[in-house]
UniProtKB/TrEMBL annotation:
Cross-referenced PROSITE patterns: 4FE4S_FER_1, 4FE4S_FER_2
Keywords associated with the record: Iron, Iron-sulfur, Metal-binding
Domain 4Fe-4S ferredoxin-type residues, every copy: 1-30, 35-65
Transmembrane segments: none
PANTHER family with a match to the protein in the record: POLYFERREDOXIN PROTEIN FWDF, PTHR43193
Keyword field contains Iron-sulfur: yes
Protein's name according to its UniProt entry: 4Fe-4S dicluster domain-containing protein
InterPro entries: 4Fe4S_Fe-S-bd, 4Fe4S_Fe_S_CS, FrhB_FdhB_C, Polyferredoxin-like_ET
An example molecular function term from Gene Ontology annotations: iron-sulfur cluster binding
Recorded superkingdom: Bacteria
SUPFAM superfamilies the record matches: 4Fe-4S ferredoxins
Cytoplasm is among the record's keywords: no
């Protein structure tokens, strides 16, 4: 029987709930907004399947990729709508063209995130772009298994822990399954996201679209954008990611799931066929593959992943290596450290009237640190004045 004593040892992948033959495990939210398994002990038959499919209890071995590539989708419209180089869309297009099914993360009617499937490219568009909220699995693993047994090709995309959870749930290899994960910084609290939206918008019906990584002003200088209706007039909230309260909380590791600081799905241990990411630092390593519109980094992890790689007619490639990838994307191997104020933040979250003010106050540097920063700035200004004489 699955029993979560230490919350750092549960990633919320839902494999245990999905595999339970008696359906006696429910994923329930805690006071931080993260889902954890709860067992109905009266219904449980102690079959042990939930423990067998738990990736935290049975982590898979790490591995390095077979090949590392920098990649750019030559379709500029698709690349602009993508967080990085637009490679996921091409992979999805291949599977759909062969009569397959694509699984990915989309927003629901309340702008929370869940894993769903698509059988046409129009529906796949909802999976495009980064979504910095933990996605609910719900029936996704069961649906994947159903389509696989029917003989259809399936592309499943998700976080490394979700891909690992799928493999543990299936407990066998399927030739018609392609798994794609991404280099994950960590998964933020759905509760904090909901409180943020409640405070900023109140009514979800006003919202039309959300982009955590809008690139209209450049890939490096990405913005947080929400389009909505204000008194029947279309308008937009647009702010640099470094200035938006929710994004600042995410990027400072303030609102991540406890297990993200002890992730067992790093270093290729998710067993994905392909790993996608932003190729940060490409402007230094390979300027010919950089135009500030987005460049993907691709880890080819298996021969199956190599075989589905799009042709050079569709995607521009250049070779790289794992050491270069690690230089700019350490989180593909190393878990993030929890913010020192994380516990205090969630304690105050229970009674706060403004989550945006709580984020601002929590992330505000201490007085002495501000003094040091201001002193350094003053010295620099004085030195510039002196040099200018």
């Amino acid at each position: 029987m699955i029993n979560i004593v230490d919350k750092t040892s549960c990633c919320g992948c839902s494999a245990c709930a999905s595999v339970c033959p008696k359906q006696c495990i429910n994923m329930e939210g805690d006071n931080e907004g993260f889902l954890y398994p709860h067992v109905d002990k009266d219904t449980c038959i102690d079959c042990g399947l939930c423990e067998k499919v738990c990736n935290e209890l049975n982590p898979m071995a790490p591995r390095e990729p077979l090949q590392v590539l920098a990649a750019i989708n030559k379709n500029e419209k698709i690349r602009l709508k993508s967080s990085s180089g637009g490679i996921f869309y091409v992979l999805a297009s291949k599977i759909i063209s062969e009569g397959g099914v694509v699984f990915g993360a989309r927003f629901d009617e309340n702008w929370q995130v869940l894993i769903d499937y698509a059988e046409d490219m129009e529906s796949v568009k909802a999976f495009m772009g980064s979504k910095y909220v933990q996605a609910r699995i719900e029936n996704a693993y069961k649906d994947v298994k159903y389509f696989l047994i029917k003989g259809r090709k399936v592309l499943f995309s998700g976080t490394p822990c979700q891909v690992a959870g799928l493999h543990q749930f299936l407990r066998k290899q399927f030739d018609n399954l392609l798994t794609v994960d991404f280099i994950c910084h960590g998964i933020p609290s759905p509760k904090v996201w909901q409180m943020y939206l409640d405070e900023i918008f109140g009514c979800y019906k006003r919202m039309k679209s959300v982009s955590f990584r809008d690139k209209t002003r450049g890939w490096q200088n990405y913005h947080f954008r929400i389009e909505y209706d204000d008194n029947e007039n279309a308008t937009m909230l647009l702010s640099p990611a470094t200035q938006n309260q929710y994004m600042r909380a995410f990027l400072s590791d303030l609102i991540l799931r406890p297990s993200c600081s002890f992730c067992v799905a790093k270093s290729g241990s998710s067993r994905s066929d392909i790993t996608l990411a932003d190729f940060w630092g490409i402007w230094n390593e390979n300027p010919q593959m950089y135009d500030n519109k987005g460049t993907s980094m691709i880890f080819i992890n298996t021969d199956k992943g190599r075989l589905v790689l799009p042709s050079e007619e569709i995607v521009k490639y250049d070779k790289s290596d794992y050491s270069t990838a690690l230089k700019y994307n350490r989180v593909c191997k190393v878990s993030v450290s929890p913010n020192s104020k994380r516990d205090l933040f969630f304690l105050k979250l229970k009674t706060t009237e403004s989550v945006t003010q709580l984020i601002e106050k929590t992330l505000k540097p201490p007085f002495m640190q501000l003094c040091i920063i201001n002193t350094k700035l003053l010295i620099r200004r004085l030195m510039k004045l002196e040099w200018g004489r």
